[in-house]
Automatic annotation (TrEMBL):
<dbReference type="GO" id="GO:0070987">
    <property type="term" value="P:error-free translesion synthesis"/>
</dbReference>
<protein>
    <submittedName>
        <fullName>Co2+/Mg2+ efflux protein ApaG</fullName>
    </submittedName>
</protein>
<feature type="domain" description="ApaG">
    <location>
        <begin position="8"/>
        <end position="130"/>
    </location>
</feature>
<dbReference type="InterPro" id="IPR036767">
    <property type="entry name" value="ApaG_sf"/>
</dbReference>
<dbReference type="Pfam" id="PF04379">
    <property type="entry name" value="DUF525"/>
</dbReference>
<dbReference type="InterPro" id="IPR007474">
    <property type="entry name" value="ApaG_domain"/>
</dbReference>
Length: 130
């Protein structure tokens, strides 16, 4: 997988980096299924320890369809990040058209219990031309 992070957002001292790759071997173009894998790195640049609580994704496709996905944690985890720590995870997205995009935010908690949102950068889902 491409280790270069193409999309970056920084909010409240937390950096979110995203790299996305089209997966032709997992796609079934003839059946109208395109699949991407995205790698996210969360970096705590704050002076306090934080914990990821929830995610909010807005997934759109080139037809204008929008799917909102809300849930606890990421891939079954709610990582705790001390100052300077990072957390990486990989997930995937399937669309019924070859072009779309994803964006959203994570909600983190600080040690004092306060909650804050961290932007996930907008990134395109683009299959190569046939």
């Amino acid at each position: 997988m491409n280790s270069l992070f193409q999309h970056v957002a920084i909010t409240a001292g937390v950096t979110v980096r995203v790299s996305v790759n089209f997966m032709p071997e997992q796609s079934r173009v003839e059946a109208g299924r395109w699949f991407w894998v995205y790698h996210v790195r969360l970096e705590n640049g704050r002076d306090d320890t934080i914990q990821l609580r929830t995610r909010h994704w807005r997934i759109s496709d080139s037809r204008g369809m929008v799917n909102i996905v809300d849930g606890e944690g990421v891939v079954g985890e709610t990582p705790v990040l001390a100052p300077g720590q990072t957390h990486d995870y990989v997930s995937g997205c399937e669309l019924t058209v070859p072009h779309g995009a994803m964006e959203g935010h994570y909600t983190f908690s600080a040690v004092d219990g306060s909650l804050f949102d961290v932007a996930i950068p907008h990134f395109p889902l683009t299959a190569p031309a046939e």
